[in-house]
Write a structure and sequence with these properties.
The chain has 13 helices and 25 strands. It has 628 residues and is of the alpha+beta class. Helix 3 packs across helix 4 and helix 11 runs antiparallel to helix 13. This is Protein kinase domain-containing protein.
Length: 628
């Protein structure tokens, strides 16, 4: 599909893709046949049970299976061991539906209405057609309209960064200053393994990385500029699984880059675009834009102990500012100037018009769909090689782009940008943190992904959203001993000293204290996902959603190892909304995530004992049965 002018930019494509991925309640002008008895409203929200169903449900419960799929009394028995696969997300769980209206109860034994099971429209429709049972015409018609699962992405952090930079230019916050009153945006997007920074420069003026030896004076309110900087070098540490994922991500990126380099960029301009006098449709092809870098050598982390986020027996978690190359967060900012393209095209069109070759097309020119432009308007194809421009204001710009940066809000954008993430530190001699980092690199990709729709996960009997299970993993870093000499060192005091055991030693011949090597904690960088839950304060929907995260882990053989409320985080959602939109979302929607995997293990079986503990933690009663 061709887009007009600037809509063909990488930024526009990303924005359109993201907006398309945001789940919206289906809207219909008229309810499909067969639903009039289910709902009162003519245009219901298909992500909440209808009012007549809600009336019989406890407060805080809006999700349940309320539709029934009728059976032909002479139909065949639905055998569980011969169940049909329906639509699924990458988690592989069978019971997926786009909305609450895509879940049904039905009887596997025709005529035995007292025995029912839960299934989905895609599974039931496929089974019914394969077995010739087509009497449920309304339900079959509804199943045909169900969309495929699609991945949902968090709001664009690049947009939030650009907004913050604009505020700095207006003088609303200090540009380039860590720990300003208005914190940078929280990073909620995944970073491919091959783009994780290989080296971290950690700025730690308050000696936070030593954990046990963190400064305990009263200077935590001192501005960073007034505190002597202490810098440490860290290197990225990968497990075998992490190396394998790094290679896989790099290979996918390489293939995508090769495909992009071998293609051309299409631009479609209509008559009158940008004030031109052209009376025809102009189809322009240009060479591909320069490729993005394929690795990140270095990033910076700014940490201070006042930003404590959580603390346990084995670790301490801080909110930190992570400074990364701007392109990694904002995306490609190289583009072509539409006005320059049209100016070049007018010159080319004039030459071809005089030569009588105006409507000639090259053999390798991309075809134009009839949907892209009016059929009665002449189309001219032109191949051009315009100069690449920077929407960040870097390099030599054309007159049109330069005009954008000459105003008070202009100026070249910085080469780096900061975001907020969590830094998890380990207490000395504890081994939980490296094990947790290894587990994060073993987790399947879908543990970190948000998907549309819902699952009914046994033993639950109600649909729950298909959100991510764990925080995004941003790398495990250890002190780089090779650069230790270039880093300011800690000066131990007498209180830090250790005397070797020598019971025969006297005060006179006591040896000099042996100063220990300074402890610097390794760093596990993770996505910030909110605060610890209070189960008693959660609605039934929320308790079931949090429970489903543990249940999904169990289905893949993962034993979390520490079933406790402190290991479940909650924050306002949905994450596809802008931060302000989440705060005012009505009804409120929460987003949950599991944490603390230092004890987690991968088993070759389904750890059913974990399910019982989780159901008890969230007070959800006995285990349920009856899904197909």
């Amino acid at each position: 599909m061709f887009k007009r002018g600037f809509l063909n930019s990488e930024k526009a494509r990303k924005t359109m893709s993201t907006e398309d991925a945001v789940p919206k309640p289906p809207t219909v002008e008229k309810l499909p046949d067969g639903l009039e008895s289910v709902v009162f409203e003519s245009n219901p929200d298909f992500h909440i049970a209808p009012p007549n169903v809600l009336q019989g449900m406890p407060p805080g419960k809006t999700r349940t299976v309320f539709r029934h799929w009728p059976r032909d009394p002479k139909g065949q028995v639905m055998q569980k061991e011969r169940a049909i696969q329906g639509k699924m997300t990458p988690n592989g769980y069978q019971l997926w539906g786009e909305t609450l209206y895509d879940f049904f109860r039905t009887t596997p034994l025709p005529g035995v209405d007292g025995y029912s099971m839960i299934s989905t429209s895609s599974k039931l429709a496929t089974w019914m057609r394969e077995h010739g049972e087509l009497s449920a015409t309304h339900e079959l018609e509804w199943a045909e309209k169900e969309k495929e699962p699609k991945q949902i992405f968090p709001c664009d952090v690049g947009r939030l960064i650009r907004d913050r930079e604009a505020d700095a230019k207006r003088g609303w916050l200090a540009p380039g200053s860590p720990f300003s009153k208005r914190a940078p945006p929280v990073l909620e997007e995944r970073i491919p393994h091959h783009l994780l920074p290989k080296k971290l420069i950690v700025h730690d003026p308050w000696n936070t990385l030593s954990v046990a030896h963190a400064d305990d004076d009263d200077d935590e309110d001192i501005a960073l500029a007034d505190k002597p900087d202490v810098v440490h070098a860290y290197r990225l540490s990968r497990s075998k699984a992490g190396l394998r994922k790094c290679e896989e991500d790099a290979e996918r990126a390489r293939k995508a880059a090769e495909e992009e380099a071998a293609s051309t960029v299409n631009h479609l301009y209509m008559p009158g675009d940008y004030g031109t006098s052209l009376s025809l449709i102009l189809h322009v092809t240009t060479p591909p834009l320069p490729p993005l870098p394929t690795s990140v050598d270095e990033a910076h982390v700014y940490i201070r102990r006042r930003d404590l986020c959580g603390e346990g027996n084995h670790s301490i978690v801080y909110l930190v500012e992570w400074e990364l190359p701007r392109w990694l967060l904002v995306g490609r900012e190289e583009t072509f100037c539409d006005q320059c393209i049209l100016k070049m095209a007018e010159v080319e069109i004039k030459k071809r018009h005089e030569a009588g070759t105006l409507y000639d097309r090259s053999a390798d020119a991309s075809p134009i769909s009839s949907l892209d432009c009016p059929s009665d308007t002449p189309i001219v194809h032109v191949e051009l090689n315009p100069k690449v421009q920077s929407s960040a204001g870097r390099g030599e710009l054309c007159e049109h782009f330069q005009a954008r940066f000459d105003g008070p809000l202009g100026g070249e954008a910085p080469a780096t940008a900061r975001v907020v993430v969590c830094a998890k530190l380990s207490r000395q001699f504890d081994t939980h943190l490296p094990r947790e980092a290894s587990n994060y690199q073993l987790f399947p990709d879908w543990f970190f992904e948000h998907w549309s729709g819902y699952n009914v996960v046994k033993p639950l009997q109600d649909p729950t959203p298909c959100g991510a299970i764990v925080p995004n993993f941003y790398g495990y870093y250890v002190p780089d001993e090779s650069e230790a000499a270039a880093v300011p060192r800690f000066s131990p005091t007498a209180e830090d000293s250790q005397l070797p055991p020598s019971p025969r030693a006297s005060d006179d011949d006591a040896p000099e204290p042996v100063l220990p090597k300074r402890y610097l904690s390794p760093i596990l960088l993770l996505e910030y996902c909110g605060k610890q839950i209070e189960p008693d304060e959660l609605s039934i929907d929320d308790r079931q959603e949090a429970t489903s995260l543990f249940l999904h882990m169990s289905r893949t053989g993962w034993m979390q190892g520490s079933i406790a409320a402190r290991n479940v985080l909650v924050q306002p959602g949905p994450l596809s909304e802008w931060p302000l939109g989440r705060m005012v979302c009505r009804p409120p929607k929460n987003s949950f995530r599991l944490i603390d995997f230092g004890r987690a293990v991968k088993l070759d079986r389904w750890p059913e004992e974990q399910d019982s503990q989780v159901m008890q933690l969230f007070d959800l009663g006995p285990l349920g049965r009856g899904t197909w």
